[in-house]
Amino acid sequence: MTIQIETPTTPRPPLVPPIRGRARWTAAVLLTAGALLQDVEFVLEPASSGSSADRIAWWADHPTQIALSQAAGILALPFLLGSFWTMARLTRTHARRTTAVAVTMLTCGMVGLADVHGVEMAANWLVQSGHDEAALAVLDVSSPTVAGAAVFVLFIIGAMVGSIVLLVAQVRSPYVPRLAPVLLLTFMVLDFALGSGVAGHAAGLASGAVLAWAVVTGYTRPPRPAKAERAHSGT
């Protein structure tokens, strides 16, 4: 004999997107503008993955292009910070602590990245003034001191750990399409592991575009259907 027991379940209330109204369009801009500017930065400086000497030689030959590239990189930072806080609104309901850690680490990463941009801008100013050797010494400093180590920790550790924790928060959130964390993981592999700036940030832009679409359309991931509990006994 088989006995089937149906356990009544309380219907779940419908999910309400955390960003509604006109704020959706502001959120969509924040989710994409920073990544787009970063991609422009790397496209404008094709020598960014080369040695410091190669970069300095390229800077000297392309003063306008490197100026535009560095400007795009600096302008990306406030939009990136805005994108992290916008992502937090999509993930904090279902992953509050994870979101808090992610946003804190990524904010630290942006502080470190701003410092890196400052160093590279100073080196470029030296190049444009004809002081190539001094610029090389700035980029290839062998003793960065405690302050340099702090910048390294803020940028590298903050950006890498923050991205990983944010990935976990996105997977847990029903307001984030599954494609977004997949593209975020692609960004991390291409940028952090393989050093491919253009392709990596293109993947990051694609992830932001998916999130922007989700916000504008009011996307919610449908919940899994509840399963009836079954008990079987045989005689």
Tell me about this structure.
- Helix 1 (23-44) packs antiparallel against helix 8, helix 4 runs antiparallel to helix 5 (132-139) and helix 6 (145-172) packs antiparallel against helix 7.
- The chain has one domain (23-217).
- It is built from eight helices and no strands.
- Mean pLDDT is 89; it is low at 227-235.
- 34% of the residues are buried.
- The chain is an all-alpha fold and 235 residues long.
Strand content: under 5%
Enumerate the spans where pLDDT stays under 50 for 5 or more consecutive residues.
227-235
Please provide the ordered H/E string of secondary-structure elements.
HHHHHHHH
Rounded to an integer in angstroms, the radius of gyration calculated over CA atoms is: 23 Å
- What oligomeric state best describes the polypeptide chains here? single chain
What is the CA–CA distance across the termini? 6 Å
Quantity of strands, as a count: 0
Q: Based on Cα principal axes, name the global outline.
A: elongated
Helix proportion range: over 70%
Classification by helices and strands: mainly alpha
Quick overview of this protein structure:
By secondary structure, this protein is mostly helical. It has helices at residues 23-44, 52-61, 63-91, 96-128, 132-139, 145-172, 179-193, 197-217.
